[in-house]
Model the fold of this input.
Amino acid sequence: MSFFLAALAWIADPAHWGGSGGISARLGEHLFYSLLAVALAVVVALPLGLWIGHTGRGRALVIGTSGALRALPSLGLLTFLAVALGVGISGALLPSTIVLALLAVPPILAGAYAGVEGIAPDVVDGARATGLSERQIITGVELPLAVPMVLGGIRSATLQVIATATIAAYLGLGGLGRFILDGLPVRDYPQMLAGAVLVTVLALVVEGLLIVLQRALLTPGIRVATGVEA
Amino acid sequence: MRWAIANGEQILSLTLNHVLIAVPPIILSLVLSVPLGWWAHRHRGARRVLLTGSGILYALPSLPLFVILPVLIGTRILDPINVVVALTLYGIALMVRSCTEAFDAVDPGVRDSAFAVGHSPAQRFWRVELPLAGPPMLAGLRVVSASTLSLVSVGALIGVPSLGYFFTDGYTRSFLTEIMVGIIGTVVLAVVFDALLVAAGRLLLPWVRATDTRKGAA
Done:
């Protein structure tokens, strides 16, 4: 337990918070990398997922691809892209964002198409009968009703991205993983442990916030149209 | 290719290491999750605690967990055991949910019939509910297997030898072939493990039609 106390003391030390390598800066970097990757993944996966849910096409392909992606080691992909792109430490943000976004795509896709598929067929037929175009059905009916599921997908994607962004430090990027990787060669265990605790707490806090947001967005109307219990 | 042949011995020994680290978590997560899943299936309170707990557990990032564990369980910081324990925890986090849902999915009518023909609760569990819950559990275990094999390589960052060594070494040397060998090796292992699990499923669960392809969503 003494290690833990040392780690907590390390975190509590004001000297470790300021400056370009301080906790606040690393926390900001970590969130920046994660947000960038999740945003990129949303832009790609959300329209695709809604389209799959709406048309029912391409579902098997997506499930297969997601399964295959799971077997790909992210550390391998990260180092491979970094070397293949030849960007060096200064451009390490490019391979890291690609890998993190790749991780985030499958859960967001799954959330989007599962959300659309979960809507009662009557609701969609009703919208069609009142004369909405297919595009209007997707953006005006299916998307709003799928929001909780979409957000659920974004939540698991965000968690994975925050966790994996730790590894991005290996390419020389910042983020909370720095504390772990910098502490390792000099056997500074309190610093490593502090980094580990910080990433874990960050992941749990973000998870909690997204769960609250998800609950708040599950309106009675959505519950009726999708049959989802709270 | 030439590099792979010249370094065949190293590839073989690191692959073996990779397998040795990955197998215990896969087996342990199954063995431990069946009773936990059963418990969650039977008791509302246990379900809430176990399913929320496993959700949180799965949210813990792997590299930090490798570093935190030795402090909690008193092992050395670079001991491979830490990786095994951490991966077992992730496996359980995934598997408890699969097992709970597998038991939930057993038709209540079948359960009642088993009771009606005079099965004791123990007989009902071993002869009716467990066999019927087998296929979805196997689907869950396949997911655990793939993710475990992929996560083992992260251990390379804290010096635990596995195919992940090719990632860190290849990166330091800017040598793509080496990284490729590591990635291909990991994927091949995942495919082989998956095939073994499917074969084991055919053997142990002969009542499952070959058409059952239920897979866990991402």
Remarks:
- The radius of gyration of chain B is 20 Å.
- The mean pLDDT of chain B is 81.
- Chain B is about 80% helix and 0% strand.
